[in-house]
Amino acid sequence: MNHLSTRHLTGIRDLQEQDIHLILKTASEFKEVINRPIRKVPSLRDLTIANLFFENSTRTRLSFELAEKRLSADVVNFSAATSSVKKGETLVDTVNNILAMKVDLVVMRHPHPGAPHYLKSQVNTQIVNAGDGTHEHPTQALLDAYSMQERLGDLQGKRIAIVGDIRHSRVAISNILCLQKLGASVRVCGPKTLIPKHIASLGVEVSHDLDATLAWCDVANMLRIQLERQGGEEMVPYFPSLREYQARFGLTSERLNRLDRAITIMHPGPINRGVEISSDVADSEHAIILDQVENGVAVRMAVIYLLAGVR
Ligand code: CP
Questions:
Q1: At residue 287, what are phi and psi to the nearest 5 degrees?
Q2: Domain ranges in the chain?
């Protein structure tokens, strides 16, 4: 198969196992392209893409924009904070006005879970979800899977731990769905208050013991405590204090040194240094955090290129 089975990427749920393998294989071809002296291909010269960001982003926004430009697409960027959304324009009106300017594909980050699904039912364009609230972040899961494969080879049977604020994490849900399709075993680990009860129904193990989880896994994907979804830094109702969270669930070199083998450390960013991960671990040779960011461009090139093939 050399084309995707879907026209949109609203979540990993849209993808079959062979779609994921096709995206990862195509991404490795694009990774070779972006490491050449001339990092561009003319593949999508006829495509115009709008990146709509209704929520803050550094990695995803710049990575999509670079991916689109490396494919020679025309790109327009929209930030809700400086748009007519501030004057009360609806999401559907906003997107229909952008589409009237002959835009072919929309990449959207939105704070509300399900926003890309709603938009898909209301407007006539292809949609890529760049993160919708606490729901899904499919391209993050794909770039994470690509980065794990690069380090560990085939993910079949590999043990992946996702640690931290699972309750508020779209990265966790998309990673679980993607890794399971690739045959990996997934365990989530964190305080009881930050692991929603429904997560076990996805077929993952649940642990509240970080040391036991580190001894079990090949990869620890450390998630950020999302204080902005918990009422801000003054209010931490899900655990007593950041200091206590760090003591029980923070990844430190002391913890890693107690293991009998090295494990791979990941983090989707942005990092809360000294909370879920110590600075020395984040900057260590076992951490592939910046590889994840590099691979994000190649993976997003693959997603856009393949979606453009099913227009
Ligand atoms: N990983 C990630 O989604 O980062 P940004 O919020 O900076 O895009």
A1: -90, 135
A2: 12-136+294-308, 138-292
Answer positive or negative: Cα dihedral of 79, 58, 219, 217: negative
Average pLDDT taken over every residue of the chain: 95
pLDDT digits (tens, 9 = 90+) for 21-54: 999 999 999 999 999 999 999 999 999 999 999 9
**Distance (Å) from CA 151 to ligand 1 centroid:** 22
Superfamily of domain 12-136+294-308: Aspartate/ornithine carbamoyltransferase (3.40.50.1370)
Q: Which CATH superfamily does the domain covering 138-292 fall into?
A: Aspartate/ornithine carbamoyltransferase (3.40.50.1370)
Catalytic residue among 61, 70, 109, 267: 109
77-88 b/e with 16+ CB inside 10 Å = b?
Answer: ebebeeeebeee
The residue to mutate among 52, 58, 147, 300, having the most atoms of ligand 1 within 8 angstroms of its beta carbon, is 58
Q: What whole-number distance in Å separates Cα of residue 261 and Cα of residue 239?
A: 30
Mean pLDDT of 85-90: 94
One-letter amino acid at 96 equals: N
268 Cα nearest atom in ligand 1: 1
pLDDT single digits (tens) 157-210: 999 999 999 999 999 999 999 999 999 999 999 999 999 999 999 999 999 999
Tell me which of 36, 82, 86, 87 is the catalytic residue: 87
Query: How far is it, in rounded angstroms, from Cα 66 to Cα 72?
Result: 10
Cα 106 from Cα 10, distance rounded (Å): 11
